[in-house]
Each structure stands twice: as C-alpha cells, then as structure tokens.
Write a structure and sequence with these properties.
Number of strands: 22
InterPro entries: HATPase_C_sf, HATPase_dom, Heat_shock_protein_90_CS, HSP90_C, Hsp90_fam, Hsp90_N, Ribosomal_Su5_D2-typ_SF
Radius of gyration: 35 Å
Low-confidence stretches: 11-24, 96-100, 112-121, 536-543
GO molecular function, one term: unfolded protein binding
Pfam families: HATPase_c_3, HSP90
Strand content: 15-25%
Structural class: alpha+beta
CATH superfamily of the largest domain: Histidine kinase-like ATPase, C-terminal domain
Largest sheet: 9 strands, mixed
Strand order of the largest sheet: 1-6-5-4-7-3-2-8-9
Keywords: ATP-binding, Chaperone, Cytoplasm, Nucleotide-binding, Stress response
Protein name: Chaperone protein HtpG
C-alpha cells in the first residue's frame, strides 16, 4: 500500500551538487559512493553505541555487495544506523541536505567525528548513472521503528511505502539499465571494489569474501611500525616494483587533516614511467591517482598514499587549484619531504650519498620549481665531480674558491654533460688544477640556471664552451711564439682549407689541441633544453654556431706556418680541424673516412 507520493525537492541553492553528479568522469564510481554511504551508516551506529545512545547488539558489522544477473540488480547492504520514513524524506528527497553534516554538527563536541564519510544524499544519486530504478529498503536502529521502502525511477517523483525488513540497516537495490549491464559481472564488480574500497574502515564482503584491509598502514602510528611493515605495504601497492629507497609517514590534524605514506622509488633517467603513482584517498575511500595540485609537481615521481577528508570526493581541476586546504596540503608535503631528506643526510651522510643518484632528480626538480624547497634543501643538495666525490653547495664553492675565480672574483663552476665524449676537455682543465662537476641528468640544464640565479657571483660553464684561458679568465695572456705575419698566414691557410671566414688564431698553452672547437654556453643550453623538452628535432635543424680557434703556440701550427708546400699546409690544417671535430664527437660520414685515410698517409 502506497503511503505517500511526492516530488523530490530541488532548490536553487542545491542545484550545484546535482550538476556535480554529471561531472563524474566514470560511471563506475556509483559503487564507491554507495559502499561509502553504507560505511558511513555503520560508523554512525558505532559512534552512538560508544556514547551509550544505542543499547542494542551491534553484531558483526559489515557491508555486503551482491548482484543478480537474471534479475538485473545490484544490492549494497549494511547493518548500520538505518532510516525512518521521515529520515528518507529529509536525507534523500532533499538532495542538498547531508545527513552526515547534521550528525557531525549534533555530536561534534562528543568525540571523534572524523571517521564519518558524510556523503549520503548527493553520492546516493550517482546510482542513477547506471540504474533505471532504485529502491531503498531500510529499518532504523531506533526502538519500535517501522521499516520503510523508497522507490524512484530517476525522475523527481518517488513513493514511500512500508516494508518487510527484520534487521536493522539499509539495502540499496539498483535495477540496472540496459546500457549499464557491464556492471552485472563478478569480475567487473570485484575490480571496482578492489580499486575504490580496498582500505575502507569497515569490512566489505563480496561473494562471501572480505575484499578490504580495514586498518591500512597509514592509519597507524609510525612508532608502532617496522621497516618490514613499510616494505610489505609498498609491495601491496606496487607488486612488481623494486624496494623503495626510504619513505615519509605523514600525520597532521591541524590546520587540516592529512595522513599518508610517501615512498622514494628508484628512478631511472627516463622518469616519465614513474609518474602518477600516488593514490589519493578520503577517509580510506580511493578517489584518484591524478594528484596534481594536491602534491607538488616535483614530487609526482614519488609513490604511495595520501588521505585527507579536507579534499572533496568530487572535484574539478579548477576547484583544486583554488582550494585553500589543497594549497596548504601541497606546502606541507613539500616541507615534510625536505625535513626527511635533511634528517637522513645528517644521520648518515655516507648512506645518503650512496642513494643520492636515485633521489637527485627529486631534489633538483624541487629546487627549480619551489623557492621554499630550495631554501630547505640547499644544505643537503649534493654535487658530484668527475672523480666521484660529493659536495654540498657550500662545500663545493669553498673547494674551488682558491683556483677557479676569474679576474672579477666571480667563481666559475665547470661541468660536463658527457664525461666520456668530453674527456679531452676535462683532462685539459684538470691539468690546470681545475675541478669539473658531472651534470648529465635530465633536468640539469634547468638546474644550472637555478644555481646561477641563486648563488652570488657564480658562473656555470661547460668545459668545452670556450678555450681554457677564457673559461676562467684570469686577465693574463700567454705570449705568442708566432709573429703577427705568421698569424695572418696561418689564419688564411685555415680559412681556405676549411672554407670559413671566422677562424681565430690565439696564443694558448702548447699542451692544448692545435685546433679547438667550442660552442657558446648559451647555445649549448638552448639545444640541451630543447632536447629535454622534446623539441630536439626542431633545434637539430639549427646549425651549430661553433667557434674555431687555432692554437698558435702548438708545434703543429708552428710547423704549418713554416711550411712552403700549399697542399701540405692545407692537409695539416684539415687534419688539425678534423681532430677538433673528433674531440667533440662531430666527425662522421665521409669526413671521418677522409680523416682516417689522411692519418694513414701521414704515418706511412
């Protein structure tokens, strides 16, 4: 017998929540919402019992999910607080009203209310994304309460009748629409439950098996956990991944609520495959693994879990970017990561250095992207030289201070992006007593710019970007063994042999190569940056703006200046130039073949 018919209340002030329902990107979240509501109802009952306001037997509290393929139904059942017919009208028919909001307000001064998920109302209406009709059969925990049944076909019309239900709790029965029968499948439902519900705080049963861990690691106190606990949980999250380097356990309750565990994985040079591995939860309900804005961009390579009730379940990107709690959480995570790294550095520097290659990209990325992180991390950021030694920023500046200041007292940091290919230049500067850093990482080109911006009176230059005397200009000039006339003669020979007009003859050390090819630092950085940003092909079409410098003090050049045979002069000039190209890995194809044949003729 129908006791009441009516129209669901939709007011102007609650139109936004209704619209948000349609912003769900995936219809599968209907099950997340219904199970979350069932958990919510269960926890409300537990709270009332803990306060003595419910005297009955709690029994074995759990949420059950079942389906009937023939009847085309999916049922989510709980043994929680239940509802009366009046409460159905209040919490279901008035869409914008949240039963959990009222409940929390009523009991906010009587204990911990953080466990209440609190989305009954809007979340319930996600049912209609997959169902053509929805039934609620419920019985309140209140003594003498009459069971009630609510039915709606997805329009604003509903009906409420009495029902047959002996036990306390609520059954939500979805009559699945023809276009959503994919959800009437055991594998599909289990997949959704394991994705969204694997860490819910109340047992969830599907096909007579509990599918969730009700007390995941991040809900426990760090003092109660061992390294083995953290490693085991990591394997649960990422079964095929190598063990992480270390982790940060997050736990804060003011000015926002946040718990979680972030792991530092071993990251390869090509780190795109490591992104999007952090899982976002809200009160143990899985929300998404797209955590941009919640987690700082430079920490997107971390793995793990963060859980915060202060991040709404249903959010848009623009909402996240503007939300004050999200900004605070972002800043807090950055701060905690910096503190953890500094703690590890101070506790055991040797062990920190052994792992540094794997965390180098996190630290540098953070220093580039976040001024506050730069300030927090500069004490433990390490630079490695070509001899394999590590220095902090301050230590390295002190290390090279005596020998690598130019005439203007600017400290010049020399670096290599490829120690093997640039070995000739590295050996040349080391013969002068200079030190060379190894900066060959994916983002080191950007990191170099950051160092120059942040460090006072510091210039950073690649070892092959200029001649030795100009890399660190001491204001002195080597004396030339060639006369001005010989210099002009040598210059003319090289210009003709190489078909160039820009060859310079300079007085360099006799130990330097007879010809040096350098590429201006700014051009190198542009090409490196373009390559790392996926624009290498475009920049590759630009000609290398190389500088050709002839070492007027080298014995081969002296010999060339005294040579009277024009063909021999040309051959010597070409050979010296090809040697310079070879040292820069720029000699290939026919030019390399000609160089090899010419070399054979010189020694035969």
């Amino acid at each position: 017998m129908v006791e009441e018919k009516g129209t669901i209340s939709v007011h102007t002030e609650n139109i936004f929540p209704i619209i948000k329902k349609f912003l769900y990107s995936d219809h599968e979240i209907f099950l997340r919402e219904l199970v979350s509501n069932a958990i919510d109802a269960t926890q409300k009952l537990q709270k009332l019992a803990s306060m003595g306001e419910f005297q009955g037997e709690l029994g074995e509290l759990k949420v059950k999910v079942a389906f009937d393929k023939d009847a085309k139904t999916i049922t989510v059942s709980d043994q929680g607080i239940g509802m009366t017919a009046e409460e159905i009208k209040k919490y279901i028919n008035q869409i914008a009203f949240s039963g959990a909001t009222e409940f929390v307000e009523k009991y906010k001064d009587k204990g911990d209310d953080k466990q209440i998920i609190g989305h009954f109302g809007l979340g319930f209406y996600s049912s209609f994304m997959v169902a053509e009709k929805v039934e609620i059969v419920t019985r309140s925990h209140q003594d003498g309460a009459e069971p009630a049944r609510w039915v709606c076909d997805g329009s604003t019309e509903f009906e409420i009748t009495t029902a047959e239900k002996a036990e306390r709790g609520t059954d939500i029965i979805l009559h699945v629409a023809d276009d959503s029968t994919e959800f009437l499948d055991s594998w599909r439902l289990r997949q959704i439950l394991e994705k969204y519900c694997r860490f819910l705080p109340v047992p969830v049963e599907f096909e007579e098996k509990i599918i969730n861990d009700t007390a995941p690691l991040w809900t426990k106190a760090p003092a109660d956990l061992t390294d083995e606990d953290y490693l085991s949980f990591y394997k649960k999250l990422y079964p095929t991944a190598a063990d992480p380097l270390f982790w940060v356990h997050l736990n804060v309750d003011y000015p926002f609520n946040l718990t979680g565990i972030l792991y530092f994985p071993k990251v390869a040079k090509d780190f795109e495959m490591h992104r999007d591995k952090i899982q976002l939860y809200s009160r143990q309900v899985f929300i998404t693994d797209e955590v941009k804005d919640v987690v700082p961009e430079f920490l997107m390579l971390l793995h793990g879990v963060i859980d915060s009730p202060d991040i709404p379940l249903n959010v848009s990107r623009s909402f996240l970017q503007a939300d004050s709690n999200v900004k605070k959480i972002n800043g807090y995570i950055s701060k905690k990561v910096a503190e953890k790294l500094h703690e590890l550095f101070k506790a055991d520097r040797k062990a920190f250095e052994e792992k540094y290659d794997s965390i180098d990209v996190f630290v540098k990325y953070g220093m580039i992207a976040d001024d506050k992180f730069y300030d927090r991390s500069k004490a433990f950021t390490l630079l490695q030289n070509t001899e394999g030694k590590y220095f902090t920023l301050d230590e390295y500046q002190e290390h090279i201070k005596a020998n690598q200041q130019d005439k203007d007292e600017t400290l010049v940091i020399l670096y290599t992006t490829d120690p093997a290919r640039q070995d000739t230049y590295i050996q040349g500067v080391r013969d002068r007593g200079y030190d060379v850093l190894k900066l060959d990482g994916v983002i080191d080109n950007h990191f170099i710019n950051t160092l120059e911006q942040k460090l006072e009176k510091v210039s950073v230059r690649r070892v092959d970007s200029d001649t030795l005397d100009k890399l660190i200009d001491k204001g002195t000039q080597a004396e030339s063994v060639l006369s001005d006339a010989d210099k002009e003669k040598v210059k003319e020979v090289f210009n003709q042999a190489l078909d160039r007009k820009d060859v310079n003859v300079e007085a360099l050390s006799p130990d330097d190569l007879p010809v040096l090819i350098t590429l201006p630092e700014f051009m190198r950085r542009m090409k490196d940056m373009a390559r790392y940003n996926g624009m290498g092909a475009m920049m590759g079409n630009l000609p290398d703006q190389i500088n050709v410098v002839v070492n007027g003090n080298h014995p081969l050049v002296t010999r060339l200046a005294g040579e009277t045979d024009a063909e021999k002069q040309k051959a010597l000039a070409q050979q010296a130039f090809d040697l310079a190209l070879l040292s820069q890995n720029m000699l290939n194809g026919k030019a390399l073949t000609d160089f090899v044949r010419r070399s054979v003729s010189f020694i035969s």
